[in-house]
Amino acid sequence: MTAQEEAINVQDLFSIKGKVALITGGSRGIGLMIARGFVEGGAKVYISSRKKEVCDEVAKSLSQIGECVSIPADVSTPEGRGELVRDLSAKEGALHVLVNNAGAAWGAPLEEYPEAGFDKVMDTNVKSVFFLTRDLVPLLEKGVRPGDPARVINVGSIDGLKVPRVENYAYAPSKAAVHHMTRALAVKLGPRGITVNAIAPGPFESHMTRWLLDNFQAQIEADCPLGRIGSPPDMAGVAIYLSSRAGAYVNGVVIPVDGGICIT
Fold it and tell me: pTM for the full model?
C-alpha cells in the first residue's frame, strides 16, 4: 500500500487527545471557546489570564469535563511572561499547542487617541505574542512528534484584514502585525518542527465585542453572507483542526472565521 492509498482514521485525524496546550486569555471570550473545545477533545489545557480569581474559577469549571489548570499571568509584561514560562516549564516537560489569544483594544476618536492606549494595545497584542512564543520554543520543540509538529496559533482579527467600522486605531494595525509575524515565525520555526498559523475571527460574543454588538449586531449580521455572528463551536473547530494531525501540513496561513464578512 502506497502512502496515497493508506487508510485514514478520521477520528484520529482530528484528535487532540493527550496533547498539552496553553491558551492565553483563556478565561473568557474566544480563549474560553477554544479552551472548552480542547478540554472536551481530551487535551490537557492550561489557561492563563491576568485575574487569578477568574482564571481559577474557570479552570475549576472546565475541570468538571476534562483536564484544565489555571496558570494566571499578565503576558503584556516581561515579568508576567517570565513567570508564566517558568511555571509551565516546572509543570510540563513538553508543550504541543500554544494559543496566543490574550489581547486588548482601545477605542477613542482620532483627535483624542492616547499614546498610553496605543502602547497598551501593541504591548499586549504584538510584543507579548512574539516574546512568549520565543521563550516557549524550547518547550514546544519537546512537543514535536513524528508527522505531528508542535503548533503555535495566534489569534488575529478580520480587522487586521480590512478597515473596521469603529475608531480603534491601534487594534487593527496590531492584528495586521500579528498576521505578518505569524508568517515570519512560520518560516523560522517550521524547520524546527513547529508550525505557526493565525485565526482571524470576525464578530463573536465576548467582553471585547460587547459594545460593538450592542450597537451594530443587526447591521453586522446583515453584512454577513451567513447572516449571523460566530458561535463557540465555530471557533473551537478551527483551532482543533489546526492542532490535530489534520492540520499538520498547514503553516503560515491566516484563516478568517467570520462567515464571509471580510470578502463582502
Answer: 0.94
Q: Quickly count helices (H) and strands (E) in the chain.
A: 9, 7
Catalytic residue among 46, 113, 171, 249: 171
> Strands 97-100 and 20-24: what pairing?
parallel
User: Quick count: other Cβ atoms within 10 Å of Cβ 84?
Assistant: 23
171 is catalytic: yes
Is it the case that residue 241 has pLDDT exceeding 80? yes
Residue in the structure block whose three cell numbers are 511572561: 81
Complete domains list, the chain, with CATH: 10-255 (3.40.50.720)
What's the mean pLDDT in 243-252? 98
Q: Tens digits of per-residue pLDDT, 138-167?
A: 999 999 999 999 999 999 999 999 998 888
The pLDDT, as a whole number, for residue 206 is: 76
Q: What CA–CA distances, in Å, run from 50 to 35, 53, 104, 198? A: 16, 9, 12, 22
Half-sphere exposure of 258 (CA within 13 A, CB side): 24
Is the torsion defined by CA of 115, 120, 125, 130 positive or negative? Answer: positive
